[in-house]
Amino acid sequence: MIGELYKGAYRSDNRERHLSNIEQRVLPAITVLSYDISIAKVFGSIRAHLEETGMSLPDADIQIAATALGYDLELVTGKLRYFNRISGLKLNHVLATSRNR
Questions:
Q1: Domains annotated on the chain, with CATH
Q2: Which of 13, 59, 69, 71 is deepest in the core (most CB within 10 A)?
Q3: Element containing residue 17 per DSSP (H, E)
């Protein structure tokens, strides 16, 4: 999430350098997807299911998963044990694999 990058920049001793990198290098290279009503509906469905089964995840992770599902995208993550809880979510294991090397 872009918010995580901004949080890191604002907490950094090199705030201006990191903010500049985000705005000049990162943002032009990516597509920021909308979190709209249809994605919020997917979020609600996932959260309700997780709560019913006694498995919880942070809202930010559910938002990421809902966005991937809503846009029919594959999620690249190293947090497989979390995201494996979400039915139908396509996961790319490359980051989890790279952590084991």
A1: 1-32 (no CATH), 37-99 (3.40.50.1010)
A2: 69
A3: helix 15-21
